[in-house]
Amino acid sequence: MAAVLYVDDEEAIRRALQSWLTRRGHVVYTAATSDEAREILTSHEVDGAFIDIWLGDESGFDLFEWIDMHKPRVAEHVVFVTGDIIREGEVEKSL
Known about the structure:
Elements: E1 3-7, H1 11-23, E2 27-31, H2 34-43, E3 48-52, H3 60-70, H4 72-75, E4 78-81, H5 90-94
Parallel strand pairs: 1-2, 1-3, 3-4
């Protein structure tokens, strides 16, 4: 199964997704911040990542830029997630 990274600043969501993916046989690393995610990505091999768009320290898009530069194989397998409902155009403004 895949080794994945799940990045979200909300602990309850991280734990729930880690539990769900682990029960399905995946190796799951979790991070609450972009810095934690970078540490995991430099010390572990992962196949893909789920990244919350609205992280507390920076946006998930900022983290993706770093991944794209330093871990291009992982960048091809990133899924952005969010629990927020956003109006059309707000995502583009945050880039």
